[in-house]
Design a protein that fits this description.
By secondary structure, the chain is mainly alpha-helical. The protein has one domain. α1 runs parallel beside α6 and α3 packs parallel to α6. Helices cover about 80% and strands about 5% of the residues. The protein is rod-shaped. β1 and β2 form a beta hairpin. It has a two-stranded antiparallel sheet.
Length: about 240
């Protein structure tokens, strides 16, 4: 194998590591900003009704969730959509069948939405884990060919002293060091983001459980006060019909 090919392989490994490092930091910054934004959206959503309780809390959530953004707002929207379909059936004069049990429908809708949020939060984590696992081997790959180049240099020289191979071997080992340097931030970021993912999912599941409990206490008649129909608290489906 010619020296040109060996140098090309080593340089390609270093260029690949540089690209992986840039991609790693782009992912870290993007995920950090995305997590901060989602946390701020959730704080804004839950802080919109700090004094409400019971049916009043459900009324506040029903009024706020169409305009809000964030994971908790989307979970609440999924819950109200499920209950609205049940209430629309009852308003239409159809009996409530076991298949349309509001408790079951609500839990199913909330679970599906939490799974969607999980998939969104998991985006990029697989790539970070892959970079963390692959980068050291890419560096080692470059080091192996760098050492081969050093040995070729030593055999081609008139004297095979340690000094004649120390510099090329040291240069070859740089690739391994670069690979490890690329992997360390990826590993740390992956672990931190995974912990953040688990905390966020636990928070969403707790919020969904509280939502189900509030809906159950209200008899699954999730509504909002509509002053245009006498200030009566109506189920969401009936409220929408009254406003129409």
């Amino acid at each position: 194998m010619s020296d040109f090919i060996i140098r090309y392989i080593v340089n390609s490994a270093l260029c690949l590591l540089a690209a992986l490092s840039a991609l790693t930091w782009m992912l870290i910054l993007y995920k950090a900003y995305a997590n901060w934004q989602l946390a701020a959206q959730d704080r804004h959503f839950t802080g919109s009704f700090p004094q409400a309780a019971g049916r009043g809390l459900l009324t506040a959530i029903a009024a706020q969730q169409p305009l809000a953004t964030g994971p908790k707002a989307r979970v609440a929207h999924a819950g109200f959509s499920a209950l609205s379909s049940v209430e629309a059936t009852e308003v239409g004069g159809l009996s409530r069948s076991p298949a349309r049990d509001p408790h079951r429908l609500l839990e199913s809708a909330l679970t599906r939405q939490i799974r969607r949020e999980r998939r969104a939060l998991e985006s990029g984590l697989t790539l970070l884990a892959s970079i963390a696992n692959v980068a050291p081997f890419v560096g080692l790959f470059g080091t192996v060919f760098g050492i081969i180049h050093a040995l070729h240099t030593m055999t081609g020289s008139d004297h095979g002293s340690i000094g004649s191979v120390a510099v090329p071997v040291g240069q070859a080992l740089v690739a391994t060091g670069v690979g490890i340097a690329v992997a360390i931030p990826a590993v740390l970021a992956y672990n931190l983001l995974l912990r953040r993912l688990n905390v966020s999912l636990a928070d969403l599941e707790e919020y969904a459980a509280d939502f189900v409990n509030l809906a159950e206490c209200a008899g699954f008649a999730i509504g909002q006060t509509d002053h245009s129909v006498g200030g009566e608290v109506l189920p969401l489906a009936r409220t929408q019909e009254a406003r129409a």
